[in-house]
Design a protein that fits this description.
There is one protein chain. The protein is an alpha+beta fold and about 210 residues long. About 30% of the residues lie in helices and about 25% in strands. The chain has six helices and nine strands; from the N terminus they run H-E-E-E-E-E-H-H-E-E-E-H-H-E-H. The strands form two sheets. The chain has a six-stranded mixed beta sheet with strand order 1-4-5-6-7-8, sandwiched between helices. The longest helix has 15 residues. It starts with a helix and ends in a 7-residue tail after the last helix. The C terminus is likely disordered.
Length: about 210
Amino acid sequence: MTEAVTHLEIELVKFGVPLRDGVFKLCDVHKSKSILNYDHPRFQLSGGTDFVIIPSQTPSDIGTAYEICVAFEIKTDEVIDKEGIDKYYNQAIGELIASRCLSSQPVVLVVLTDISRKATIFQYSFDNNRSSSFIEIFKNVSLEQMASKVRQHLEDFCVPDALYEPPEEVEEASAVEIGVVQFKKKQKLNQVSSLDQLEDMMMNRDEW
């Protein structure tokens, strides 16, 4: 993965993502299979991702997951050509939900990409009153478009201070208002097999 993270960083920096100015950094976390574990009395998520963008000054004792701005799930050209990128959409959505629950950053982005040709981007979006949210998917964008989206996301939504603490209502929203999935038992992110399954697991807020 060392070569992959270096290649991704080069592509992102080439199109203006601020990864070498001491504000944000790209980290390889693919060996941490539990970085996106999230436990709640009503549901549990377990799994990981490959690379993340976090504030450069994030102390090790805070924990990378609590400062995720952007998460990258990498699939090789061979895997995508054989199985299709859409097979991994639900995994990316699971990573988006887990990252949103864990991270203190106001908004999180997940990028599913082969880092050589195309990418698909997943993000939470809100209505004008921020009273409801939905997952927006940008399919088959170029690497330049992907980098542009990541750059704009960091500029518009992410707080570069590693000790950022969101307002209490945002903390609650991360687990209740922003679309959390409910699991009868611990569910691995890469085993979410269908959109129907995701819909079945969506939390009914009236039950809280």
